[in-house]
Amino acid sequence: MSRWPTRSTLLAVVALAAWSADARPQTPPARVEERPFDSAAATRLPHRGAIVAGRQWRDSDGEHTLLLTQTGKLPTRVPAAYLPLPDEPAFDAEVYGYHYTHAAGAATTPGGAARLVWRTADFERGCQFDLYAGYLAEAVTITDLDRDGVAETTLLYTLACRSDVSPATRKLIMHEGAAKYAIRGTTAVSGDPHGGRMVPDAAFAQAPPSFRTHAVALWKRYVAQDGFEQF
């Protein structure tokens, strides 16, 4: 009698091993869990400007904090010779976004384990009219659209320097980790045919379709919101 297994026996063993591996329970991705935002503790994280909105959550990458800040009116950095009205005062305004991640339980440790995942900055410069640079705090979302256990953050903000009721600049920024997607355009203003422009980034083509769907829906929901307070 042969002591070696037959070819059919070997194939059966391989098939059984493959079935056993497939039958093992798969570990699902961690659920994205949003937490109450501790604004007092979050102020200890490095940032510029006043915190106007924020979120905290846990996902498969750990604990996270999102800070959105704006500076209000600042003395301009633009030399007078480059201003439309050299003898008139001019001002700047800036907005910033920060995504920090930290070791579990260390989210608000001063100078501790927080690590900056990304930082965004934008601004209006040399404005001599009605000035604004700020976030739509109610439009911030934390999602897991592709169900991979890693959260997506989406935010919208407005930039304006205008002397009439014309469309303002509107931007939507979406991140999954360090990956960034954006929509740029203008607010919709009644009676102005040039308002409501929307230009999604080509980067959305590399993302799950649900990312673009969510971003466009959020944009359309807030595109006509133009009644912000000027500085």
Write the layout of secondary structure elements.
Layout: H1 7-23, E1 33-35, H2 39-42, E2 50-59, E3 62-70, E4 74-75, E5 91-102, E6 115-127, E7 130-135, E8 141-143, E9 152-162, E10 169-176, E11 179-186, E12 198-200, H3 209-222
Antiparallel strand pairs: 1-2, 2-3, 3-5, 4-5, 5-6, 7-9, 8-9, 9-10, 10-11, 11-12
Index terms:
231 residues; 6-stranded antiparallel β-sheet
Large-scale geometry:
globular
Biggest sheet statistics: 6 strands, antiparallel
Order of helices and strands: HEHEEEEEEEEEEEH
Instruction: Indicate the radius of gyration in whole angstroms.
Output: 25 Å
Number of strands: 12
Separation of the first and last Cα atoms:
94 Å
Would you write up a description of this structure?
With 231 residues, the chain is α+β, with helices and mostly antiparallel strands. The protein contains three helices and twelve strands. The strands form two sheets. Strands 1, 2, 3, 4, 5 and 6 form a six-stranded antiparallel sheet that branches. Strands 7, 8, 9, 10, 11 and 12 form a six-stranded antiparallel sheet that branches. Strand 9 and strand 10 form a beta hairpin. The protein is globular and about 60 Å long. The relative contact order is 0.13.
